[in-house]
Backbone:
């Protein structure tokens, strides 16, 4: 019985210290955000190199380099999420310069993703035989292109992206649709049939 009383007393005193600290919003310094922005810029440069390699490798019926590029884009997108959260909880009220740098890098990566996808799909559309793993690539690319289009519609990006990027996005989608039409058996949505 004394254990119940002690538990009840602890409960009435409020949540433990760790829980109270976890519910408080953490504030981030400019230095922390700048460090992540530097990492984001490195990711962007690495992705640009991988995109070039992926386009070259696609002509050899290989998805390996393109997967590496997409993995790098995934790392970039994870950093984007972290930076967005830190910008919202920045201790310093002055964040316009950091937000501008962040949006510039995000825009560059979005453009790189759209153009790399378009080139990669263009090379693939010329190939009569699609390599192993094509189905998985197409499924993720359809989602990725949809997400890119949604992001392009955000007010902070509309003014930064030229009409040529929106045209590239549309072209990439059309090429992907053409590839899928050539090989409908790659995308079996009926589950188990065929």
Residues:
């Amino acid at each position: 019985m004394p254990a119940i009383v002690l538990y009840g007393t602890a409960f009435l005193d409020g949540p433990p210290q760790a829980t109270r600290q976890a519910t408080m919003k953490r504030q981030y310094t400019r230095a922390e955000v700048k460090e992540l922005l530097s990492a984001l810029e490195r990711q962007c440069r690495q992705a640009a190199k991988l995109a070039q390699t992926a386009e070259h490798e696609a002509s050899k019926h290989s998805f390996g380099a393109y997967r590496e590029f997409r993995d790098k884009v995934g790392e970039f997108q994870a950093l984007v999420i972290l930076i967005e959260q830190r910008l919202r909880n920045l201790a310093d009220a002055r964040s316009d310069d950091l937000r501008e740098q962040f949006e510039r890098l995000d825009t560059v990566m979005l453009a790189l993703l759209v153009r790399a996808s378009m080139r990669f799909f263009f090379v693939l559309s010329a190939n009569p035989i699609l390599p192993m793993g094509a189905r998985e690539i197409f499924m993720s690319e359809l989602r990725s292109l949809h997400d890119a289009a949604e992001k392009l519609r955000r007010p902070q990006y509309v003014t930064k992206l030229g009409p040529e990027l929106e045209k590239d996005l549309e072209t990439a989608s059309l090429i992907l649709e053409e590839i899928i039409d050539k090989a409908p058996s790659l995308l079996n949505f009926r589950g188990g049939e065929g």
